[in-house]
Write a structure and sequence with these properties.
The complex is a heterodimer of chains A (264) and B (478). With 264 residues, chain A is an alpha/beta fold. In chain A, the strands form two sheets. In chain A, strands 2-1-3-4 form a four-stranded parallel sheet, with helices on both faces. The radius of gyration of chain A is 18 Å and the shape is globular. Chain B folds into two domains: 257 residues, Rossmann fold (3-Layer(aba) Sandwich), CATH 3.40.50; 82 residues, no CATH class. Helices cover 54% and strands 11% of the residues of chain B. In chain B, the strands form three sheets. Chain B has a six-stranded parallel sheet, sandwiched between helices. A four-stranded mixed sheet of chain B has the order 8-5-6-9, sandwiched between helices. In chain B, strands 11-12 form a two-stranded antiparallel sheet. The radius of gyration of chain B is 27 Å and the shape is elongated. Classes of the chains: A alpha/beta (264), B alpha/beta (478). At the A-B interface, helix 1, helix 2, helix 3, helix 4 and helix 8 of A face helix 1, helix 14, helix 18, helix 19 and helix 20 of B.
C-alpha cells in the first residue's frame, strides 16, 4: 500500500540472488517493508554489467547500464542485497562522457542506489528489527561494499540487535575471499589459495555460521567450507535479520520440511 | 631483465606449490602490514598528509618539465652533470661512457630498481666492468644469479637457509645459520669492494629541484659508502622522482617509510648535492645524475598519469592478497604487485603484460593503503580496456562475455536463460544442495563445491506470488 510517507523502493535483485538464492530477495523485501517502504521489483532488470566493466568491455557495460538506468527510473530508492552490484551502479557515471545526457541519469541513479544494510541503518533508520538467532556468527566484509561504499559498521549494528546472536570476529575479516567475479575463473588456483586462507580464519573464529552481504563471496566461501568438511553454515545477512531457521543454509541440502514447503 | 610476464599463470602455479617460497611469504604477511598499521595509528594526520602528497604530486606532474630543468641547473651550478636518457639503452650507454672515462674496472651499486629496469648489470658485465651490489638483499641475489621479487625487500622470497647456502658456496667459509655471522661475513666481503671501486652507482628516492640534491632512504648504510668512497658517483633515477623543495621532500619522507616498513624514519637519509667541494673531507670528485624516461613521459596526459605519483613504498604489494599468494617473481618482470600491474604494461607493452592487470580481484586494498592515493584498481581496469580494444582478451572469454552481454541486454531472454540454468544446476545437484563436479567449471569445482540454487529463480517465485495476490484481490472485489 503506497502512502505518501512510505518511500517507493525498487528492489535490485541481482543476478546471483535471482539464480541461486531467492530467499535473499524475499528477505530483503521483508526488511524494506518492515522499514515502511513500498517495494516493487522492476521486470526489466537483469545484471549490473560488472563482468563486462571489469573485463574492459565498456561498450557492453554502457549498454547494460542504460538498460538498468531505465529499469529503475522513477523510484525514490534502488536497494539491493549486494555491495558489489550496488557498487557497480555507483560506477555508471564513469561510463559516460560528462556531456552525455546518460551521465546525468547515471549520477541520478547513483544517488538513489543503496546496499541493503546501509539503506536500513543510514537512510531509513530501521528501528523495529525483531529477529532472533541462537548461535554464533562471524562476519566477512566483502571488498566492494567495504571499500567502495563504506559498509563496515552497518551490518554489525544490525546483527547486534538480533536476539541471542553472538558475533565472533574472524582474523582478517577485511581480506578478500578470492572470488573476484571473473578472477576465480581466470586464476582458479590463486583464488583457491585466497579462499583457503579465508576458510582457515573462519574456522578459527569458532563461529558456527558465516555471514556476509554479497552472494558471490558467500558461494565461494560456502563451497570451500563444504569441500573442506567444516561444520560451518553460510548465510546472507538479510536471512539472519529476518529469521531463517526454516530454510537450508547456502550449499546445504534442503531438509524434508523445506523441500515439502517448496513443492507446495 | 628478461620479460616473463606472459608466463604469469604458470609461474604463479609453481609459486603456490613452492613450500619454501610460501614460508618466506608468510613472514612478509606477518611483518610489513602490521608495522604500517602501528605507524599509521600513531599519526592522526596521516590521511591528511596523503591528500597533500597526492595534490603536490599532481602539481609536480603538471609542471614536470619546469622542475626537472630547475633541478638540472642546480646540479650544474653545484658542479655536477645531468644526462637525459630517453630509453634504457641510452642510460646504459651513458653510464658505460662515464665509467670508461675514468677507466673503471669495478663499480659498487646501491639498491636501484631503475637499474634493474634497464638491465644495467648485464650491460656492464658484457662490457667487462664488474658491478657489485652492496645492499644486503641485492648482494645475496647477485651471488645466486637471482633477481628482486619485491621493490624494497628484494630477497623477501628467500629463507635463512638460502642465504646460508649462497654465502657458504661463494665465500668459502664454514657454513653458518646465524644471521649475525652471515651479516658480518657480507660486511667483510663488501668492505674490500667499497674501497676498490672506481665508480659508485646509487638510485634516488627523490630529486630536489631547489637545491639540485638527490636523496637515498636506506637502512643499511651501504649507499653512503657506495657514493662517498669512489671518485665518481652516478645517480640513476627516473624523471618522476623530482620534488620542488626540501620541505616538500620531507612530506614524502614522512609517508614513505611509514607506508613501507612502518618506520617513522629510516636509519639513513642521505642527501647528495654535487661533487666534493674545496675543504670537504670526503665525497666524490665527479657527480652525475642519469635521468631515465623509458616510457614515462608517454604517461603524462594519458589515463595512466596518476601512476607517476608512485613513490615506490611497496605498501600495495605488501597488502595485496594476490602478491601474498604468489610472490613477486610470478609477475615476470621488475615491478611486481598492483603498482607493477599498472606500470609493467606501460613499460614493456600490454601485449606482453596483459595477464598482470587481470591478476587482481579489485579488492581495493592497494588503493586503501597507497600513500599518494593512486586508484590502482581503476588503472588496472584501464589496461583491461586496452587489452579488450586490441583484441588481446582470450577468445573463449571474449565469446563468453559477448554471449552473456547479449542476454543481459534482453530481459525476457535473460529470464529464460536464468530459469534454464537454475533448473540445470538443481538437477545436477539432486538432493545434495551442492555440486561436486561441474562440466566446464573445473576452475571452480576442482577446489570447492558449487552451491546449488535453493529453489526456482526469484523472478519466477516473485511473479507467481504477485499473480496470486492479484487473483485474491480480484476474487474479493467480485
Amino acid at each position: 500500500m503506497h502512502t505518501p510517507s512510505s518511500p517507493r523502493v525498487a528492489l535490485f535483485v541481482t543476478c546471483l540472488v535471482d539464480l541461486y538464492r531467492p530467499e535473499i530477495g524475499f528477505a530483503t523485501v521483508k526488511l524494506l517493508e518492515q522499514a515502511g517502504c513500498d517495494v516493487e521489483v522492476p521486470e526489466t532488470q537483469t545484471c549490473c554489467g560488472q563482468p563486462a566493466f571489469n573485463s574492459g568491455d565498456n561498450r557492453s557495460a554502457r549498454d547494460i547500464a542504460i538498460r538498468t538506468i531505465e529499469a529503475f527510473d522513477g523510484y525514490e530508492y534502488v536497494v539491493g542485497p549486494s555491495g558489489s552490484c550496488i557498487g557497480m551502479l555507483h560506477h555508471y557515471p564513469e561510463l559516460f562522457e560528462t556531456s552525455d545526457p546518460w551521465h546525468r541519469r547515471a549520477q541520478d541513479l547513483k544517488a538513489r542506489a543503496f546496499e541493503i544494510s546501509s539503506f536500513l541503518v543510514d537512510v531509513v533508520g530501521l528501528d523495529n528489527l525483531a529477529a532472533s538467532f541462537h548461535g554464533s556468527v562471524t562476519y566477512h566484509d566483502s571488498c566492494s561494499g567495504l571499500r567502495e561504499l563504506g559498509i563496515k559498521a552497518q551490518p554489525r549494528a544490525l546483527l547486534a540487535r538480533v536476539e541471542g546472536l553472538e558475533l565472533k570476529e574472524m582474523k582478517e575479516s577485511e581480506t578478500c575471499c578470492g572470488f573476484g567475479g571473473t578472477f576465480c575463473v581466470k586464476y582458479p588456483d590463486i583464488s583457491n589459495r585466497m579462499v583457503g586462507n579465508k576458510t582457515a580464519n573462519i574456522a578459527a573464529s569458532g563461529a558456527r555460521t558465516l555471514v556476509g552481504g554479497d552472494l558471490g563471496c558467500l558461494l565461494n566461501m560456502a563451497g570451500k567450507l563444504k569441500r573442506e568438511g567444516h561444520d560451518v553454515e553460510t548465510r546472507h545477512l538479510v536471512e539472519i535479520l529476518t529469521g531463517c531457521s526454516d530454510t537450508a543454509a547456502i550449499a546445504e541440502p534442503a531438509d524434508d520440511r523445506t523441500r515439502l514447503a517448496r513443492q507446495l | 631483465m628478461q620479460i616473463n610476464s606472459p608466463r604469469f599463470k604458470e609461474r604463479a602455479h609453481q609459486a603456490l606449490d613452492d613450500a619454501n617460497l610460501q614460508r618466506a611469504l608468510g613472514n612478509l604477511k606477518a611483518g610489513f602490514p602490521q608495522k604500517r598499521a602501528q605507524a599509521v595509528a600513531c599519526m592522526p594526520e596521516f590521511d591528511d598528509l596523503r591528500d597533500q602528497a597526492r595534490d603536490l604530486k599532481n602539481h609536480i606532474l603538471e609542471h614536470l618539465d619546469l622542475y626537472l630543468e630547475q633541478f638540472e641547473s642546480k646540479v650544474v651550478e653545484n658542479g655536477g652533470q645531468v644526462h637525459w636518457c630517453r630509453t634504457g639503452d641510452d642510460a646504459c650507454q651513458t653510464i658505460l661512457d662515464i665509467c670508461r672515462a675514468v677507466d673503471a674496472k669495478t663499480v659498487t651499486k646501491g639498491k636501484s630498481m631503475v637499474s634493474e629496469e634497464i638491465n644495467l648489470n648485464a650491460f656492464l658485465e658484457a662490457n667487462r666492468i664488474q658491478p657489485v651490489e652492496t645492499d644486503l638483499g641485492e648482494y645475496i641475489l647477485q651471488l645466486r644469479g637471482d633477481h628482486p621479487s619485491h621493490i624494497i625487500a628484494p630477497a623477501i622470497h628467500l629463507n635463512l637457509e638460502d642465504v646460508s647456502d649462497a654465502f657458504h658456496r661463494h665465500h668459502r667459509r664454514p657454513k653458518s645459520d646465524d644471521p649475525a655471522v652471515l651479516m658480518r661475513e657480507a660486511r667483510e666481503m663488501l668492505r674490500k669492494q667499497f674501497v676498490a671501486a672506481d665508480v659508485g652507482i646509487t638510485g634516488a628516492n627523490f630529486l630536489v629541484a631547489e637545491t639540485g640534491s638527490t636523496i637515498i632512504v636506506t637502512n643499511e648504510g651501504n649507499g653512503d659508502l657506495t657514493q662517498t668512497l669512489p671518485k665518481t658517483h652516478i645517480v640513476i633515477t627516473s624523471i618522476e622522482k623530482v620534488v620542488p623543495t626540501l620541505e616538500d621532500m620531507t612530506l614524502f619522507l614522512r609517508l614513505l617509510t611509514r607506508s613501507a616498513t612502518g618506520q617513522e624514519f629510516s636509519v639513513y637519509n642521505t642527501l647528495s648535492t654535487g661533487p666534493r667541494r674545496p675543504g670537504d673531507l670526503d665525497g666524490p670528485e665527479n657527480f652525475h645524475v642519469v635521468l631515465v624516461d623509458n616510457g614515462r613521459s608517454d604517461m603524462i596526459g594519458s589515463q595512466f598519469q596518476e601512476m607517476l605519483r608512485c613513490i615506490r613504498c611497496s605498501a600495495c604489494m605488501n597488502h595485496c592478497p594476490v602478491y601474498g599468494a604468489v610472490g613477486g617473481h610470478s609477475y615476470g618482470w621488475v615491478y611486481p604487485g598492483p603498482m607493477g600491474s599498472v606500470l609493467t604494461p606501460q613499460l614493456v607493452g600490454i601485449e606482453q603484460a596483459a595477464l598482470l592487470p587481470n591478476a587482481s580481484t579489485f579488492c581495493g586494498k592497494c588503493e586503501e593503503v597507497c600513500p599518494v592515493r593512486i586508484p590502482l584498481p581503476k588503472l588496472m581496469r584501464h589496461w583491461r580496456e586496452k587489452e579488450f580494444e586490441k583484441h588481446l582478451t582470450p577468445r573463449a572469454a571474449r565469446y563468453g562475455l559477448g554471449g552473456w552481454s547479449f542476454f543481459a541486454r534482453r530481459p525476457r531472454l535473460y529470464r529464460l536463460l536464468s530459469r534454464v540454468a537454475n533448473r540445470a544446476l538443481r538437477t545436477l545437484a539432486g538432493s545434495k544442495g551442492r555440486i561436486h563436479r561441474l562440466p566446464l567449471a573445473g576452475g571452480w569445482t576442482d577446489w570447492r563445491d558449487m552451491p546449488a540454487p535453493s529453489g526456482r529463480t526469484f523472478m519466477q517465485q516473485w511473479n507467481e506470488k504477485k499473480a496470486g495476490e492479484t487473483a485474491v484481490s480480484r476474487e474479493k472485489k467480485a
